[in-house]
Design goal:
The structure holds two protein chains of two kinds.
Chain A lengths: L4 H8 L1 E3 L6 E4 L2 E4 L5 H10 L9 E4 L16 H17 L2 E3 L9 H8 L7 E4 L13 E4 L2 H10 L1 E4 L3 E8 L8 H12 L7 E6 L1 H4 L3 H9 L8 E3 L4 H7 L8 H11 L12 E6 L6 E3 L7 E3 L13 H14 L14 E4 L1 H4 L2 H11 L9 E4 L4 H9 L2 H8 L2 E2 L20 E4 L14 E4 L2 H10 L20
Parallel strand pairs in A: 3-4, 3-6, 4-5, 6-7, 9-10, 9-12, 10-11, 15-16, 15-18, 16-17, 18-19
Antiparallel strand pairs in A: 1-2, 2-8, 13-14
Helix pairs in contact in A: 2-5, 6-8, 13-15, 13-16
Chain B lengths: L5 E9 L6 H4 L19 H4 L16 E4 L11 H9 L3 E4 L4 H10 L2 E4 L2 H13 L4 E5 L4 E4 L6 E4 L4 H9 L3 H6 L2 H9 L11
Parallel strand pairs in B: 1-2, 2-3, 3-4
Antiparallel strand pairs in B: 1-5, 5-6, 6-7
Classes of the chains: A alpha/beta, B alpha/beta.
Cofactor (chain A): [4Fe-4S] cluster
Pathway (chain A): Amino-acid biosynthesis; L-leucine biosynthesis; L-leucine from 3-methyl-2-oxobutanoate: step 2/4
Function (chain A): Catalyzes the isomerization between 2-isopropylmalate and 3-isopropylmalate, via the formation of 2-isopropylmaleate.
Chain lengths: ~475, ~200
């Protein structure tokens, strides 16, 4: 019987297998950042161990770094200690680090692909759950905890039980204005936050094939939000075109050898998945969340649901708690929800394509006077590219804040946080209670919805906008 | 890591589903560079509420958390496990755990005992009638027990064989893997030369 893509990549990395034990899996690339690594390096030091393969390890500073005044010492002493600890550890153990101020600094999941380090058929891990992003290239990529970070540092392997496989087939094409983010939010509402648990998921079908690499990364990024171990997409010409010529991509004869191998990384026709979900992209619409987990979503054209309508008691209780936290009334049209802050950025939607799309919608408009728009590029390279295209000018002229690179308000570890009761429309990945700041209320949205919401001040899509420069515009 | 055989302690009902890692410990508490001291951040937002279950005197000194389904969803932060341990928890009982949380628990020595949803409900009911009651979790026989007499609860819980063995023996994963170092070296010799490296 044939094998799925995930099974092929897995099999290629098994160092050792034994009855009753998890597989010992080789790791091709280990990404590191300041928050989940200090205790792992401490463990190595205590045991007198070295980093086995510093040449397969890359560190960047992203989670807690400021997006303003990044050329000055970090003001928060605890954050500063954490960053300085990473710098000391990188030096002591010989790990390549892109620190704040470096041209390659940025969110770890933006930096890997843009350097060309993320390639098809690899195993990639990082002490961060959104490592699933790299699956967009046909890699098995997943988040690990700090004990596992230490394990990979010491051995370049991980003990992992072989997951089951699932196919998510998305037929048809996404309608104009509907994005990869809407697709994945629709999927998560369909499956719930635990639907993918225990599975490596392969996204396939026409709508997936039609996505750019950026769109594919957005989809794979959110695999963890429905509980999947990892999510991946078979590499194709789109993947190869994205990779060719990047600094760390293979060159010359190596490139040809690599591509020849990558082309074998597809699910065989007679392979069987343990589970399959089929969705139709053509019926999808802009999608937003109303609750406090990514599975609590509705179309933008819908209303805040009535908890009483949920069949399962648990869902009902969860919905009641979520509405209370979010300060929403059942039946309110989503388009009437007033937003205080719009956050454009994160490893989900902080790449150059995302900023281009946001700028295209915002161009010529002004941000609503009661709304704040924060634009945070995913990396310094993304920031520089955007500036070379004049996107920063479009954002600033509209009244947005143009910031430095990092995770920023996605998780509120740096000063970019919501205040209690403040409501955001966020292109990030989690709407958990307090995620973006204590008491903050998050609606997950796509880039077009974020951009239109910033202009109108209520959850909106570009279709709701009065064309830039028309007479109605001046009334605002 | 200490061996885990059996544990008896005060059990706390946490009647919520989808308890994500941002609830277990918000990101602002993740800035320490040690494995200790995270108890302050445990359920930090909820603990502001004097009615929150952990603030009730009958649950002081609790060491077993009995939670709704999908416990530990979200981020990969092992700090969530450390925060629970630093506070004094030895065991979390739930009908479903997020994969990364379950993995982190096994590595750090917190027992994540997966039981049927009905068992969670039975224990919640028991704790409602007897606040402050203890529960016994036996890893050897994979059983949870609570109460006495005709209403006593005794059910099995799930944990994979390998994690159970490691917890029972208190073994260090890295030590086990390094005993297979020859296999790792042999595998490395077979890797294609075009695979990327971060240092040239």
């Amino acid at each position: 019987m044939g094998r799925t893509l995930a099974e092929k990549v897995w099999d290629e990395h098994v160092v050792r297998t034994a009855d009753g034990e998890p597989d010992l899996l080789y790791i091709d690339l280990h990404l590191i950042h300041e928050v989940t690594s200090p205790q792992a390096f401490d463990g190595l030091r205590l045991a007198g161990r070295k980093v086995r393969r510093p040449d397969l390890t890359l560190a960047t500073e992203d989670h807690n770094v400021p997006t303003l005044d990044w050329d000055k010492p970090i003001a928060d002493p605890v954050s500063r200690t954490q960053v300085e600890t990473l710098r000391r550890n990188a030096e002591e153990f010989g790990v390549r680090l892109h620190p704040l101020g470096d041209v390659e600094q940025g969110i770890v999941h933006v930096v890997g692909p843009q350097l060309g380090l993320t390639q098809p058929g690899m195993t990639i891990v990082c002490g961060d759950s959104h490592t699933s992003t790299h699956g967009a290239f046909g890699a098995i990529a997943f988040g690990i905890g700090t004990s596992e970070v230490e394990h990979v540092l010491a051995t370049q392997t991980l003990m992992q039980a072989r997951p089951k496989t699932m196919a998510v087939t998305v037929n048809g094409s996404l309608p104009p204005g509907v994005t990869a983010k809407d697709l994945v939010l629709t999927l998560i509402t369909h499956t719930g936050t635990g639907g993918g648990q225990g599975y490596i998921v392969e996204y396939r079908g026409q709508a997936i094939e039609e996505l750019s690499m950026e769109g594919r990364m957005t989809v794979c990024n959110m695999s963890i939000e429905w509980g999947a171990k990892a999510g991946l997409i078979a590499p194709d010409q789109t993947t190869f075109d994205y990779l060719e010529g990047r600094p760390e991509a293979p060159k010359g004869a190596d490139w040809d050898a690599a591509v020849a191998h990558w082309k074998t990384l597809v699910t065989d026709e007679d392979a069987r998945f343990d589970q399959e979900i089929v969705l139709d992209a053509s019926t999808m619409t802009p999608f937003v969340t109303w609750g406090t987990n990514p599975g609590q979503g509705v179309p933008l054209g819908g209303v805040v649901p009535d908890p009483a309508e949920f069949e399962e008691e648990q869902d009902r209780v969860a919905a009641e708690k979520a509405l209370e936290y979010m300060g929403l009334e059942a039946g309110t049209p989503m388009r009437e929800v007033k937003v205080d802050t719009v956050f454009v950025g994160s490893c989900t939607n902080g790449r150059i394509e995302d900023l281009r799309l946001a700028a295209e919608i915002i161009k010529g408009h002004k941000v609503d006077p009661d709304t704040r728009l924060l634009v945070v590029p995913g990396s310094v390279r993304v920031r520089m590219q955007a500036e070379s295209e004049g996107l920063d000018v479009i954002f600033k002229e509209a009244g947005a804040e143009w910031r430095g690179a990092g995770c920023s308000m996605c998780l509120g570890m740096n000063p970019d946080q919501l205040t209690p009761g403040e409501r955001s429309a966020s292109t990030s990945n989690r709407n958990f209670e307090g995620r973006q700041g204590k008491g903050g209320r998050t609606h997950l949205v796509s880039i077009p919805v974020a951009a239109a919401t910033a202009i109108r001040g209520t959850l909106s899509s570009p279709a709701d906008l009065v064309p830039a420069g028309s007479t109605h515009e001046s009334e605002a | 890591m200490d061996k885990f055989l059996t544990h008896t302690g005060v059990a706390v009902p946490l009647k919520r589903s989808n308890v994500d890692t941002d609830q277990i410990i918000p990101a602002v508490y993740l800035k320490r560079v040690t494995r200790t001291g995270f108890e302050d951040g445990l359920f930090a937002a909820w603990r502001n509420d004097p009615e929150f279950v952990l603030n009730r005197p009958e649950y002081a000194g609790a060491s077993i958390l009995v939670a709704g389904p999908d416990f530990g969803t979200g981020s990969s932060r092992e700090h969530a496990v450390w925060a629970l341990q630093n506070y004094g928890f030895k065991v979390v009982i739930s009908s479903r755990f997020a994969d990364i949380f379950r993995g982190n628990s096994g590595k750090a020595g917190l027992l994540a005992a997966q039981v049927d949803e009905k068992v969670v409900q039975k224990i919640w009911d028991h704790l409602e009638e007897h606040p402050g009651a203890t529960v016994t979790v036996d890893l050897e026989s994979r059983t949870v027990k609570a109460g006495e007499g005709p209403d006593a609860i005794e059910d099995s819980f799930d944990i994979d064989d390998y994690t159970r063995w490691r917890l029972l023996e208190g073994l260090d994963d890295i030590g086990i893997t390094l005993s297979h170092e020859a296999d790792i070296t042999a595998y490395e010799a077979t890797r294609p030369s075009w695979k990327p490296v971060t240092q040239h």
